[in-house]
Amino acid sequence: MNAIPSVKLIDGKATAARVLADVRTHVARLRESGLQPGLAVVLVGTDAASQVYVRNKVLRAGEVGIRSLEQRLPSDASQAQLLELIEQLNRDPDVHGILVQLPLPAHIDEHQVVQAIDPLKDVDGFHSHNVGGLAQGRSVLTPCTPSGCMRLLRDACGELRGKHAVVVGRSNIVGKPMAALLLQADCTVTVVHSRSRDLQALCRQADIVVAAVGKPRLIDADWLKPGAVVIDVGINRIEEDGRSRLVGDVDFAAALPRVSAITPVPGGVGPMTIAYLMKNTLLALDLQRQAAQQERTPCLSPC
Ligand code: NDP
Known about the structure:
It is globular, with a radius of gyration of 20 Å. Helix 2 crosses helix 10, helix 6 packs across helix 7 and helix 6 packs across helix 10. It has a six-stranded parallel β-sheet with strand order 1-11-8-7-5-6. The longest helix has 28 residues. The protein is an alpha/beta fold. It is built from ten helices and eleven strands. The termini are far apart. Bound molecules: NADPH dihydro-nicotinamide-adenine-dinucleotide phosphate. The site of NADPH dihydro-nicotinamide-adenine-dinucleotide phosphate has 25 residues, from helix 10.
């Protein structure tokens, strides 16, 4: 009789703690050499969820020794005011990462704001320079959630080469960069979305399913191939049995006996996102140092 693969819970909290410990060590080394990484977090308005996210990011930065600079603008701040603030942060040599908390108030053009951030300080990886670089397989700042998912997948699967990954969802912040990172890791990638036909049959072919939809328990056990590895990015608040709780896009309880590994919600992808924001701040600093070095190095060939 074939052995049933043992079910593994992918513990995002524990992995994020390891990532943050590495960041802390790296930051301590930089500080010994007189350099402290700095992260600016910009919040426009008073959206309750955004305030919580910003507070958590600032807190986590402090824990790993990254200097954080919280910049708040009122809800009625103009586009010009926000662009001026970003320009100041771009010029500030003590700021290595800039994050503008999204969503922005409706009167502000989000795309223009993201494009105003120096691509080497764009720790969210949303600037076209970084989006394009990721698509071309260059070493750039990549979005935090998909980067965190890749770490979880590498830990859970080991070698990713040749595996068939199905990404459910095609947003700019999760689905598309996730697909690009999987492709870079030599997976065969299928991206499905709300207009895809026969979603279940496509998911059932997958060795890896990454769900980033925002629909509670959309993906049922019989959508999954036995032994598949499942990364559930979805965070959905539902009312159940008279209480409010968070669930993912995958029916976790039903999927658990069928899969070889799965992330829980909460405690799976969520903690990785913030850990990778800290990691990206270090990467940004490194990229800025490399760029400064290149500027200082005289061109020796006839150019
Ligand atoms: P978006 O709403 O931007 O994108 C959702 C995607 O799902 C779209 O591409 C949409 O397709 C697709 N979709 C919607 N309904 C279906 C369906 N029935 N079948 C197949 N595809 C469908 O969401 P995000 O990508 O921003 O976020 C997705 C989820 O991940 C949310 O729950 C969000 O809260 C969570 N999230 C979690 C993070 C974390 O740190 N853990 C970070 C970021 C997001 P179409 O393009 O055709 O409309």
